[in-house]
Amino acid sequence: MDFGKGFCVLPALFLCLGAVTGLQTAPANAAASCVVPDRARARDLGIAPGILPPGPLNAITDVPGVLVGQVTLVRGQSIRTGATAILPHGGNIFQNKVPAGVFVENGFGKSAGLSQIAELGEIETPIVLTNTLAVARGMEAILDWTLARPGNEAVKSVNAVVGETNDSELNDIRGRAITPAEILEAIKTAKSGPVEEGAVGAGTGTVAFGWKGGIGTSSRKLPPSLGGYTVGVLVQSNYGGILTVDGARIGEKLGQYYLKGEVDSAVANGSIMIVVATDAPLSDRNLTRLAKRAIAGVARTGSSFTNGSGDYVLSFSTAQSVRRTAEWRAAGTPHPEISNDNVSPLFQAAVEATEEAIYNSLFMAKTTTSYNVVSKKNVTVKQVPLAAIMKKPPNCP
After folding, report:
1. Tens of pLDDT along 248-288?
2. Is there a contact between 209 and 256 (Cβ–Cβ < 8 Å)?
3. Residue 332: Cβ within 10 Å count
4. What is the pTM of this model?
5. Helix, strand, coil tally for the chain in percent (to 5)
6. 248, exposed or middle or buried, with CB in 10 Å at 0-12, 13-18, 19+?
7. Which residues are catalytic?
8. Is 250 within 8 Å of 388 (Cβ atoms)?
9. Which pLDDT tens digit goes with each residue over 3-19?
């Protein structure tokens, strides 16, 4: 270690040390700023997976045109749920469809609309993420929004796309509290800009690796020599395994992981929904290939991909040149798209952004308490302890 550049160590609080000649304690005001934050994004903790830089927001909304809206329900002792809506663009998505791909690593899930994406290679509605028993209500919200769009007066069939994870540990999922109107509000209020992370939206009641999971996002920007394209990812984390953070075996360090003591359990069950967006002009076939690579990012976090884990990836391109407008559909001629030989950097971007989005979903989520209506017990799922994870505290000289 180069002591001349300074480093941080972790006792009860972080002490920041630097060296001009030998080791010297940093000024008191600098040391005071080097405490462990309660919640922070991965990069604020010195954790920056991969080699590619993030976009300006380090979020899926770095991809031009992508909008995100969320509604969070925290009511009484047992309602901890919500919905997250991702719009590929702000126009009439049904009339201006986007090429898309889907990949299912393990199909323990109840999502809607995936078979038509796989068959036709396109998305024609907002994507809604919510809880398992609210999928039908997510579909209703999408239908209400789509059928009401000007220009859709003659529409008779809509492929509503809804993803889910099961938040029943912290949420009275059987009560089906969230309504189509509330989910519709997430669609209507979707916007560009920063995306709220942690225990919000569809991540309000989720659990990951035994700690509080949630919504997380990240992005990667390719250099101009590789096209300058952006890949953005948003995740709803609700799965498990042996938590690994940027190569560090955190789950084992903290004594909380799947198969601890060689006893099988359901602790690694659950699901993850992943949405990958890019402005690269990709065909639906290469978008499916892009979706597959996102699973490598999940693997890097220590997922066990158990029998009870549903692992789903949706991907789409916002590029105008491949958008499936009425004119595009009528032309019947090829449109410019990236060749197979040039997609590999995008694959790398998807892996890195997925990994970091998952970390953000965990690191931004706060301890949540609820009453489990099935077990009839109060349940508290703690936030992952950042002190055991961070490589260096923010503001440390």
Report:
1. 888 877 877 776 665 555 667 889 999 999 999 999 999 99
2. yes
3. 6
4. 0.88
5. 30, 25, 45
6. middle
7. 271, 309, 311
8. yes
9. 233 333 333 333 332 32
